Amino acid sequence: MKKYILSLIFIAFNMVAFSSEIEVSSFNTPIRRPKVSVSFYVGRPIYNCEQGVWICHFQGSIGRPGGDGRQVSAEVTIENGVLKMSILKNYMTDKMEKELAEMNYYPIDDEVPIPQDILNNLGLKGSYSISVGRYKILENDEYFEVDFSVK
Question: Considering the chain, what is the average pLDDT of its residues?
C-alpha cells in the first residue's frame, strides 16, 4: 500500500512540474503579429496633406499601384513597442519615391494615433500612437522601411 501511495505522489508531483513547465515556456514565447496593409498621405495636415512629410489620413486599406500623388501604401506590423512600416515603392509615384529617397529621417512632430481598424487587424486592443521622433529611413529595391516607436 505504501508503494502505491508513493507512486501516486510521484506521478502527481511530475504532472504538476510538467504542467508548470508548459505554462512558463508558453508565456515566454514571443507573439508574432500579422502584417497589415495600410495607406496614408505623405504630407502635413496644415498643408491639406499636399506637402511636407508626416502621416496624414492613415487608414487600413491599400491604394492603387502607382499611388495617387502623395498617397502611399505600406505593410505594417507591431512587435515589442515598434511599428515596422514598409512603404511599398510600386504603390507610389516616381516623384514621391525620389522625395523619400532623398530623406534620411522620417520626422514625427506630433503623436500619430493608429486607427482602430488597423489595430483590430493587428490583433491589438486599446489605443496606440506613433511617438514623436526622427526615424531612420532604410531603402531597398521594393520598399522604404521605417521603425516607429509606439506607445
Answer: 78
Gap between the Cα atoms of 2 and 68, Å rounded: 80
pTM greater than 0.90: no
Q: Rounded to the nearest 5°, which phi and psi values hold at 135?
A: -115, 130
Tens digit of pLDDT for each residue in 11-46? 444 443 433 333 333 333 344 567 888 888 888 888
Q: Are 77 and 123 contacting, i.e. CB atoms less than 8 angstroms apart?
A: no
What's the DSSP call for residue 109? -
Residue 141 grid coordinates: 529595391
- Give the 3-state secondary structure percentages of the chain, helix then strand then coil, rounded to 5: 30, 35, 35
Measured at the CA of 147, the angle between CA 142 and CA 149, to 5 degrees, comes to 160
11, containing H or E segment = helix 2-28
